[in-house]
Amino acid sequence: MEYVGVTATGYNVVDVAEAKRRGIVVTNAPAYSTQAVAQHTFALLLESLSRVGAYSEQVRGGAWQASQDFCFFTEPMEEIAGKTIGLSVARIALAFGMRVLVCVPHPKAGWDDVRFVTLDELLADSDVVSLHCPLTGENRGMIGEAAIAAMKRGVRVINTARGPIVDLDAVERALRSERLVAAGLDVLPVEPLERSHP
Prior knowledge:
Strand content: 15-25%
Number of helices: 7
Low-confidence stretches: none
Number of strands: 8
Mean pLDDT: 88
Helix content: 25-40%
Structural class: alpha/beta
């Protein structure tokens, strides 16, 4: 074998160190889905804020039609403007009126509207923590008990990066205790999700 080409953004499915040792070239497709992932991130966030799915289900079930009033508020809804998000899909967040915190190893020039912060600052200050990073040995399980404890109550976590970055058991406990208000998980450590997982 001389070459491994991963037709996705991440190459954590390949033992890169071993490939390098054997002289095997490994490549990926780093930017093919940037816009689609950004859009999906906000679809998950907006659903957690506006609860469109829950309202749609209730209307289909006849709950609004049975309502005494034209106003139909059974689920809490929140506005996105003014919330603080820590992520790399900053342009969309800024257009929604959000404050943007970004934690990256090498801050980029020309991003005057975002604030580059440490991970600790991002966790402490964000209303939404959105993950957009490769899976590494250092960030496996990064969103676990300690990270969640560092967040304020009522945070939303969105993971469109790699499943093992998030400790699902810690997130489940945080959702049950209402420490986290929502988790939008597009990727999981084991896919598809095991039927027995809560």
